[in-house]
Amino acid sequence: MTKAKQRISLLVLLLLMSLPALAQTKDSTVGPVRASAAYAEVLLRKTELEADIESYLADYTEENPKVVDARHEIGILIRDIDKIYAVRPSEVGKLTQALGKLIVRRAALETDLLRLQRNYNTDHPEVKRAKKRIQIFDKSIKEILG
Question: Which of 31, 35, 40 has its CA nearest to residue 98?
């Protein structure tokens, strides 16, 4: 498979992953969750990335690595917003700014991993280190959310 086809496949996959989450986000009525610091932190980063994409598209195509990386990170953040919505109203206290920062940082690390995987194979030391960093953040996030 050529690199162009791989990129297009990745874009299609990200779009398909985002569609159900977008529909759920629009129809959701979870007030306490939306008022949480974690939600605000993740939403802020998602909004920044959406603005970046708009500015990138003025000069670059959809296949440009900057655009692909930003869309990838948005897909991860949307997935995490869905996890935030799944928190019961009685447990909204868990949704702190620190949790939001952990989620945003992990999304950035996953995007860095994608970037590394475009250049190196899975056995490369940099790829392994990136995966380990993601696992550490995942563990902390799961510890908070349960």
Answer: 40
pTM: predicted TM-score of the whole model, two decimal places: 0.78
Instruction: Report d(CA 134, CA 31) in Å as an integer.
Output: 30
d(CA 51, CA 67): 11
State both tokens at 11.
């874009």
Please report the beta strands in the chain, taking only residues with DSSP state E, as ranges in sequence order. none
Q: What is the dihedral of CA 80, 7, 51, 77, to 10 degrees?
A: 0
Q: Quick: pLDDT tens for 17-59.
A: 655 554 454 444 468 899 999 999 999 999 999 999 999 999 9
Q: What is the residue whose two structure tokens read 């009525």?
A: 29
